[in-house]
Amino acid sequence: MRIVFLILAGGGPEHISDELTQRETWARSSQQLHHAIWIRSGDKLSYEEVGRTLFVPCEEKELLTKSLIAIDWVLKNIDFDVIVRTNVSTFFHLNRLENALSCLRFNANSYGGYLQFKPKKTKNYYPIYFISGTGIFLGRESAKELCKMEQNEWQYIPDDIAISDFLASQVHLNITSIPRLTLSNHHFFLPHFFIRCKTSWNPSLASKRMRNLHVFFSTESIYRKIIIFLSIYWAEVMYSRKSPKASWNYSVRMWVEIRETTLNKRVRNGKKFKKKN
């Protein structure tokens, strides 16, 4: 399975630090079957092969425009099976990811990711669920359809919600709920293929987590792996205790995690939800 990771880059010092960490860990080299490309704003569309950076002509904050231009460029220049549009604070284990997508029967007409659910009573323009921007997965046909999107119609809507709702309107495409580990919600580490490392109250944690995860997955010794696993687990315990209003926030995050994990499983089991309020 040939996977292309399109990683939204740019921003403040913590984003630069996270990007450098990705380049030194799970995305440190483009393999024969996998490509990691960082997307930045530029004066014109150009690809810097040495730095694996795609410059697109738009403002840094125009995430939807940046994503669509990059996806269209990949369609024209790289042979692939799956595109993953992601960000600099997410960690992937490539072999585990391949196996998971195969088990989920992810194909050319598939799209998906980790689904986030909104309360039905919300008054904003939100579908009942949308694909989290930490990882938007696109099969080849889904990527082609997405590039037909009229951006002006989605100008004031967050990029992940706009992409999710547009793809949901294409009846020949199939949504796939893809499991994700969110360390900042529950601080329980389990080996996984798709891990959200960001913590809003301490942006520096994403880089630390990705480096620790890389060491864990790269280690072959079972004994050393256990030691690293325990060190990661203990670090997460300490992070949870340092979190502002730790007890209350932790309870809320755990409730959200349990709710969304359960609803994601219902989607994977074929449960249908109404797409909009």
Question: What count of helical segments does DSSP give?
Answer: 9
Beta-strand content estimate? 15-25%
Q: Give the CA-CA distance, first to last residue.
A: 37 Å
Total E-strand runs: 13
**Topology order in helix (H) and strand (E) letters:** EHEEEHEEHEEEEHHEEHEHHH
Widest β-sheet, arrangement of strands: 3-4-2-1-5-10-7-11
- Assign the CATH architecture of the largest domain: Alpha-Beta Complex
In CATH, what is the class of the largest domain?
Alpha Beta
Helix and strand content put the structural class at alpha/beta
Shape: globular
Helix content: 40-55%
Largest sheet: 8 strands, mixed
Poorly predicted residue ranges: none
User: What does the average pLDDT come to?
Assistant: 87
Q: What is the domain tally?
A: 2
Question: In words, what does this structure look like?
Answer:
It is a single chain. By secondary structure, this protein is of the alpha/beta class. It folds into two domains: 3-180, Spore Coat Polysaccharide Biosynthesis Protein SpsA, Chain A, CATH 3.90.550; 181-255, no CATH class. It is 42% helix and 19% strand. The chain is built from nine helices and 13 strands. The strands form three sheets. Strands 3-4-2-1-5-10-7-11 form an eight-stranded mixed sheet. The protein has a three-stranded mixed sheet with strand order 6-13-12. Strands 8-9 form a two-stranded antiparallel sheet. α2 crosses α4 (140-146).
